[in-house]
Every structure is written in structure tokens, then in C-alpha cells.
Amino acid sequence: MSTKEGLPLINLAAKQSSSTISSTQNALRQFGAFRFVAPQLTQNRLQRVFQNARGFFQLPIELKLRTKSYSAFDTELIRGKRAVPKESIYFFRKAEGDYHPPPSELQDSVETLHQEWTNFRSQLFSTLSIILDSTEPLEGTPTLDFESLGVNFYDSDKLDCDRAYFNPAHMDGGTLTILARATEAHDGLEIADLTTTEKLDSEGIGLDASFISVPAISGEVIVLAGTRLQRIFGKDKVRACVHRVCNPVHMSNNSAVKERLSLAIFCAPPFK
Ligand SMILES: O=C(O)CCC(=O)C(=O)O
Ligand SMILES: [Fe+2]
């Protein structure tokens, strides 16, 4: 199944047809993912964030380490053990200590993008309630849910050839992750077809399941269900998406891509 057939594309501003509802219900069980149309999130504002982030990631490491919510190459762990060969900077997170703010152009461009995202948030969650036939609207709990945003930078020059993944197979812990990428086309992002395995943990699924490649398409973003959404609705309705990013040097006919930037909004349902 191609990604286009496999992952339904939703227009949040429209009334959902019964065929969109049923294909999205299926996609949430099979992949834990779908897409929505959001040119406002993928065009100029996003490119400005990536341009500023590229400048930030090129700064000397001593400067980056002093920056609030920066995580250096190979410092984040998946399942508490596998280091992820990426650098990231997170926004809207609390940080203890004496850190510098990120460069102001980067901070401003992230805030502008995030402001645009807030126009989509309640539409996305109310559409999700309709799709999942939920009688209660999804509402965030201030103690459990908070929203943050991460910009990730992957550089295949920093990766030994034996590491096939920029980001090993994992699930995100929150409700929904909105993912946008800097490069259009196949940039290594893959999601598991959860109907191809009996395994339930992300490591087992990573070894056992079939994965499909999810190209980045202009004007659209991908939504990944997190473990919290799976817990709220139950595994029969929603599976947490298991996703990974291949090192582009391991991808056939795309070996020219060496650098990869992505942006994830770890979003929370609106509060009452
Ligand atoms: O870089 C990507 O496309 C995926 C990022 C991701 O999985 C994450 O930040 O949790
Ligand atoms: Fe993730």
C-alpha cells in the first residue's frame, strides 16, 4: 500500500465525509497516524524556523550547551539505552539552571509558527473526537498535558556507517505529535504497519513489523498518535505510532541527502 492510500489526508476546516472518517479510523488502528492540510504551517513560517535553526546548530558546541533546552548529539536515549544521533532544541519547556535563551531570531520564528498552530489545535482535537466517535471532547489536564516543540538536526557525516537509523523505532509519549520536515520527498521517515506484527513494544515492533516510508509533502503535516492517546481510547481504536528515521546514506538513490531537519509539536488537547 502506498503512503497516499495508507494515510488519509484531512481538511480540518471541512465536514468530514463518512469515507474519510472510516479511512482515518483504519489508519489510526493500522499506523497510528494520518495527515492534515496546513499550508500555513509548512510554508514560509516553517522555512524561517529551519533557516534559523540551521544557523543555531552550526554554532560552537560551548555556546549551544549554554542554551536553554538544547540537547547535544547522542545525548537523548530511546528506551533508556539507545543514544539518538541527533541534536535538538526544545521550546516551551521548563528548564532549571542558568541557561541563555536561544538566539532571538530562532525564538521569534518558533513563536510565530506556534501561534499559527494554535489556530489548528481545537479543530484538530474536535475532528479527532468525531473520527473516534467520542461522546466527550478531548480535554487536556494541566498537570498531565503540556505542549512543547522540538527542532531536530541530523547530520549523516557524524554517523558511523553501521548505524542505520538517525532515530531508532520508538513511540512518542504524549497525545499527538505533529511532524514537519525541511526537505520535501523521502527523507528517511518510516512508520510501522502495526497489523504486520504481534509485538507490542516499540523495540519488538521495530525488529518485526513492515514499515512504510512517509514522504514530506508541501502543504501537509503528519499527525502521529502517542501512547497517551492509545491509553485514552484503547488499543482497539488507536495505536501509538511506531516511527523511525533511516540514515539517508542507507537509503537507495537518495545518498545525496546528508543533513536533515525536522520539527515536532508535541501537542496537548486544549484545556477547558
Ligand atoms: O525527525 C523526525 O522526523 C522524527 C522526530 C521524532 O520522532 C521525535 O522528535 O520524536
Ligand atoms: Fe518521535
Q: Quick recap of the structure?
A:
The chain has helices at 3-6, 18-30, 39-42, 44-57, 61-65, 104-131, 202-208, 227-233, and strands at residues 9-10, 33-37, 70-71, 77-78, 82-83, 87-91, 148-155, 165-170, 176-181, 189-193, 210-213, 220-225, 243-246, 259-267. It has 272 residues and is of the alpha+beta class.
Explain what the structure shows.
- The chain has 272 residues and is of the alpha+beta class.
- Helix content is 30%, strand content 24%.
- It is built from eight helices and 14 strands.
- It has helices at residues 3-6, 18-30, 39-42, 44-57, 61-65, 104-131, 202-208, 227-233; strands at residues 9-10, 33-37, 70-71, 77-78, 82-83, 87-91, 148-155, 165-170, 176-181, 189-193, 210-213, 220-225, 243-246, 259-267.
- The strands form three sheets. An eight-stranded mixed sheet has the order 1-2-12-9-14-7-6-3. Strands 8-13-10-11 form a four-stranded antiparallel sheet, covered by helices on one side. A two-stranded antiparallel ribbon has the order 4-5.
- A hairpin with a 3-residue loop joins strand 4 (77-78) and strand 5.
- It is globular.
- The protein starts with a helix and ends in a 5-residue tail after the last strand.
- The mean pLDDT is 90.
- The chain binds 2-oxoglutaric acid (AKG) and fe (ii) ion (FE2).
- Fe (ii) ion binds at residues 170, 172, 177, 243.
- Residues 150, 152, 167, 172, 179, 189, 243, 245, 262, 264 line the site of 2-oxoglutaric acid.
